[in-house]
Amino acid sequence: MLENNSNLTDFKGKSLLIVDDDNPFRERLARAMEKKGFKVLQAESVKKGKDAANSNKPQFGVVDLRLNDGNGIEVVREIQKSNPNSRVIMLTGYGNIPTAVAAIKLGAIDYLSKPADADDVERALLADPNKRAEPPENPMSADRVKWEHIHRVFELCNRNVSETARRLKMHRRTLQRILSKRSPK
Sign of dihedral through CA atoms 22, 25, 111, 88? Predict the structure, then answer.
């Protein structure tokens, strides 16, 4: 299943730090990664993630970009500082090019959009850094990407429909209809 990738047994340390403030997602990912052989540590904030990185010096990291108390890029920087050989990936529901570039410059080896499953995470963590990454097995549909973007702007506008509609250059009623529907697959 992991073509062109290393196996977990190729690495001395198997410790994985997962930093995400979405508790159900973090717990599910932690259980799945433990079944794959990783020794999982969890943190739900930038502060706890940085503390865990310093005290445990993990070999691997999965860090959410947006955390309640700040930016996950700070945690990536701390993991890289505590263990320069670590392999860290960024996870986010709001993928965009500038943050992906910033994460890679700070030492992240990949950038995955949520919802990423354990197989995608494992593939990214164990990928050969000298080869091109495989495309995701189940990428988000164009409709889902559009829905995610609209909801991201809505949240950034403090859930103000009028302000969101203005920024998206969209009619307010059209936006309300979109916001009232469930997310596409």
Answer: positive
pLDDT digits (tens, 9 = 90+) for 93-122: 665 566 667 777 777 887 787 777 888 888
Q: What percent of the chain has pLDDT over 90?
A: 31
Does one domain contain both 121 and 41? yes
Beta-sheet pairing, 66-67 with 70-71: antiparallel
**CATH (domain of 31):** 3.40.50.2300
5 CB-side CA count, 13 A: 17
Confidence of residue 2 (pLDDT cuts 50, 70, 90): very low
Same domain flag for 57 and 94: yes
Query: Could you tell me if residue 3 is inside a domain?
Result: no
Sequence-separated (6 or more) residues with CB below 8 Å from residue 58 = 13, 15, 16, 17, 41, 52, 79, 82, 83, 86
